[in-house]
Amino acid sequence: MQQEFRPTAEEMTGQQLPYPARQSDMDPAPDSDLSNYKPAGKLTDKVAIITGADSGIGRAVAIAFAMEGADVAIVYNENTDDAKYTKRLVELKGRRCLVIQGDVRQKAECERAVQETVAEYGKLNILVNNAAFQMSQQKLEDITEEQLRRTFETNIFGYVFMAQAALPHLHEDDAIVNTGSIVGIVGNPILVDYTATKGAIHAFTKSLAIQLGERKIRVNCVAPGPVWTPNIPATMPKDEVKQFGHEVALARPGQPEELAPAYVLLASSDGSFMTGSIVEVTGGKLG
């Protein structure tokens, strides 16, 4: 097991990057290579589609799924270089990776992504809804209509559109895993619109789990705490980035690699009696 550099909140640099940020430009780089992960064949010959998988949590999940034996399709919006690198990392684990550029705000794009995945692999077993948009604002009045629409259309419309497109291909024992957030439970004063969408994702997860229970398709959600991903230096104020993760019990931000095992649990038979769950991976979020 490698000992990765996982900086404390006090060691964060306060780096600022233009949106959308590239993971390759981040300092320190997120730990997302799964070098500490020990696979056990939990997803052998499964096929997964993961949105927002060019970097951050989505990249780590794609690598973990590949290590567990799954072929993956990654859907991304803008950062082609990051997406190509994720593909390389997945293929180094011995599995196939289909890269699909698209905008989950558009239903037709979601349908195309699923169709391309099924055409490539012949089936679909796992949907991971992970694409997200956020932009911090100090006051509610500063949230523009454009920002509000982009946040909701990416974070909740896209989840619904992807689930609608995937469901005709999912069967008993298949799974949908959504990415929520602890802020959807406890709130965040500078991410009001974002927190609202994350609360919606939690409710969507629970309701869809009830609806799909008779079809034996499980629907769950991972609720991360502060995690060091490209969205942070690109969308948060410098003073927040400089102390990122200070509010949790472990006094540091999480790394994408530390989130991926929760997605494996919920996508695999290890989570066979879990549906409608909101699994918090937060470092001990306080308040």
Structure in words:
The chain has 287 residues and is of the alpha/beta class. The chain has one domain (9-281): 3-Layer(aba) Sandwich (Rossmann fold). The chain contains nine helices and seven strands. The chain has helices at 56-67, 80-92, 107-121, 145-166, 183-186, 192-212, 231-235, 238-242, 256-267, and strands spanning 47-51, 71-76, 97-101, 126-129, 175-179, 218-224, 278-281. Strands 3-2-1-4-5-6-7 form a seven-stranded parallel beta sheet, with helices on both faces. β2, α2 (80-92) and β3 form a beta-alpha-beta unit. The chain is globular.
The biggest sheet, with number of strands, parallel, antiparallel or mixed sense and barrel status, is: 7 strands, parallel
Indicate the proportion of strand residues.
Answer: 5-15%
Distance between the termini: 33 Å
CATH C-level label? Alpha Beta
User: How helical, in percent, are the residues?
Assistant: 25-40%
Q: What is the CATH H-level superfamily?
A: NAD(P)-binding Rossmann-like Domain
How many individual helices? 9
Quick one: how many beta strands? 7
Return the string of H and E elements. Answer: EHEHEHEHEHHEHHHE
- How would you sum up the global shape? globular
Q: What would you say the CATH architecture is?
A: 3-Layer(aba) Sandwich
